[in-house]
Specification:
alpha+beta, Aminopeptidase, 3 domains, eight-stranded mixed β-sheet, seven-stranded mixed β-sheet, 12 helices, disordered N terminus
Length: 383
Amino acid sequence: MLGEIKNKPIGGCCFLEGPRAVKKEELQQLTDLINYVFRTSSGREADMHISFPLFISEENLNNLLVMVDNGKPVSHMGLWINDFSYFGQPIRVGSLGSVCTDPNYRGQGLATKLMDAVLDHLEAEGVDLLLVSGGRGLYQRAQCFKAGKVTWYNIPKSSSLPRFEIVVNPPVEQLAELWSNEPMHSHRELNNFKALVDAAPLPRCIQHQSAVYLAKIGDVPLAYIQAVNAPNGGVLFYEWAGDRTVLLEIASYISNLPETREVTWPLPSWEKALHNLMPKLDAKVIRTEELSGTYRIIRFAAFIEKINKYLQERYGTNGLRGFDEGDMQVLHYLDEELKLDRKSMSDLLFSGLLPENMPPEMKSLFVKAAPLPLPWPIGFDYI
């Protein structure tokens, strides 16, 4: 449970309450603070609550942690906690965002206090993995690390015509049918899915327009791509679902639109089928880099237990276990043991960087299995 520090001086100058969850009557003031820091202070429209309608809401009060001065939120760190299906295994994922402090209260360590409270809260809520949209020192000190790889492809124009009907901005019910069948997907109630599609969180944040293109046969949806349009005619794909070969046809369709100058498709390393299909589009690699944002495993033993089931189904292996030992994390596999610090363990699991002291049987397993898939940070679930 979250603790409260009431009437305690912070930095020797203020008496603040918190960290704690924001109260219903404080939500509007918190929204004003978030909008000021991320929008109106730079001359933009105050629309953060519109961009993130599920996150900044009364239904999510318990996950919006604040420091408060006389009833006024002055520092904030928010979470959106959601259930994922990880190749059939349930995991809980927390996304951290809208981290901000009133300029008059900065330099007093408020964000650090909130970060400590966030980690306690995640543990209490049974969250397995934390995803942070940023990578600054505050998150690195909290043991959140860069992880995973993404390759950016340029998709040229094509002379081929789609074999299927392409619909722009179709009913969300058809998107939901495809999304729920993805090997790794977040749980989205239909009304929430509609709210996210209407809000288009990340495109709105970067002030770009977006659309969803669906391929179908009759009433049967086959695949969709969320495409974000830059003012210069460039198009970037943010989320996709459905048949991978059909996705290629949607990509070609979008690249051939008269208003499209170029198409860029970022593919995470675990999208192996799509990587293998890129030559069919004559796609060219632009660059390969780490995924945006940072990650931290919250409940290491529970996460490894779930990963073990994924490994058993995919590779026929069994017996991988994990536990914390002080500041170290330990993996057991068969009769082998590997002890690593959090950063090295994250590098092994999510970037496939094998340590020199890795035992042979464990090494053989991770040569096949690593890097492990991670929740995609820039789709409709973006916080």
